[in-house]
Amino acid sequence: MFSRLLLVLIIGTPVTEALEANVSLPETHLRGIDVSHYQGTINWNSVKSSGVSFAMAKATEGTSYTDPMFNTNWNGMHSAGLVRGAYHFARPGSDAVTQADHFVNTVNNAGGITSGNTLQLVLDLETTDGLGSAAVLSWVEAFMARVKSLTGRPGIIYTGYYFWNDDVRGSSCLDAPLWIAAYSSSPSIPSPWGGVGWAFWQYSDSGSVSGISGAVDLDYFQNGGSYPDIYNLCF
User: Which region is the signal sequence (predicted)?
Assistant: First the structure.
């Protein structure tokens, strides 16, 4: 995600990963990871055994691109018993409804949404494609509305504090839980989510997890406050 952002969640992260991110690891949060084809072939059973409780995988980008590892990751996460999520990398320069259709169709073709352990679908928003804030916001609204009409549930928005405030400037959270990208000791929250806070927090892009070669993004699920149970965000 963000050339500085991405997505999956883990529990039981080694101490070295926490030090890399300069983040304390409160026991109340669930931890996870987010992945794409950049992580190559993943041993999801090893990921699960290492303490990861949920993971997000890139599905699509733009109007036609599908991550070549999505089908494998989608089914591997499910087989390993992880709570799983899928994300779409937004390209606001192309039609929002076409992108939402491509996203949902790709998830359905990979095996679809399973009740109880599949998270609401994620919009990864980190580029404007050269559009102004009003046009980007209109695009986001159209994409989110289409995803909700196709799945019956609102999506989750992944973004950064400065990107949302400077490049989107939306005053409504569109009923979408926030997945914030912030590689700091405490994330700043865009104003639409000021009253509820983040549901997910991507706090590092340089973690290491058993079953994955190389670096991987690390995430938290709040598991408290406005979001006391991850299964409340599942279909």
Answer: 1-18
